[in-house]
Amino acid sequence: MSKKKQEEKKYATEEVFESLENTAQQSEHFLEKNAKVLGIIFGVLVLGALAYFAYLKFVQEPKNINAQKEVVTADQMFNNDSMNLALNGSPGAYMGYNQIIEEYNGSDVANIAKFKSAIALYETGNYQEALDRIESFSAKEEMMKAMKSGIKGDILVQLGNKEKGLNAYTSAVNDTKLKVIQEIYAQKAAVLAYDLQNFDGGLKVINQYLNDHPEDDTNSEITKLKEMLTYASK
C-alpha cells in the first residue's frame, strides 16, 4: 500500500473514531436523560387499560384500586427526579415503590412500580438491584417487552456485561415495531457492537431497523452508524 493510501486510511479511521466517540457519548447519556421520560410514556400508555382493567375487576381485585391511590405521590416524586423518595416513600405520609410492590404484590400497579423503580434504582447507581427489579417486571405487550429489554441492556452495560447488554438491545429492536423505541436501541446496539468489534452484529441490528423503517435510510445518525460498521468490517 502506498504512503498516500496509508495516510488516507489513517485519516478516515480517525474520522470514524471521532464520529463514533460523539455518537457513543450521546448514547451513553441517553438513559440518564430520558429514562424518566420512558417511565412516564409507559405509565401514560398503560393508564387507560389499567383503569379499565381495575374497574372490571373491582370486586375480585380491590387492591388495584387502593394501590392506584397510594402510587400517586411516588409517581410525583419520580417525575420530579426525587428517585430516593419515589423508591422509599415517607413513613406515615405516603408509600414509595418498594412498599407498594410489597404491599400490593400481584396487582397491575405493583407491576408498573417494578418498572419505574428499576429506572429509579438505575439512576441512583444501584445497578444490581435495578437488574433484579426489571427482571421481576412482567411484560406482556410488545412495547412493554421492548422497553424492558432496552432498560435491561443499559443496566447490563453499567454492570460491565456488554455482550449481554448487546443481546438485550437487539431484543428491544426485535420486540416491537414502534419506531421511537426501535430507533433508540438500534443506535445503542450499533455503538456497543462497534465497541465489542462485533461489526456484523451491529449491522444486522441497523439493517433490521431500516427494514422496518426504510424511510429512515437517510437518517443521519442511523446512516452514520451503518457507514462506520461497514467500514470497520472490511
Describe this structure in words.
By secondary structure, the chain is an all-alpha fold. It is built from twelve helices and no strands. The protein has helices spanning 3-28, 30-56, 62-79, 83-88, 97-103, 108-123, 127-136, 142-158, 162-175, 179-195, 199-212, 220-233. α10 (179-195) runs parallel beside α12. The longest helix has 27 residues, at 30-56. It is elongated, with a radius of gyration of 21 Å. Residues 4-17, 23-28 and 44-56 have low confidence and may be disordered.
Q: Notable features of this structure?
A:
234 residues, mainly alpha, 12 helices, 79% helix
Summary, kept brief:
By secondary structure, this protein is mainly α. Helix content is 79%, strand content 0%. The chain has helices at residues 3-28, 30-56, 62-79, 83-88, 97-103, 108-123, 127-136, 142-158, 162-175, 179-195, 199-212, 220-233.
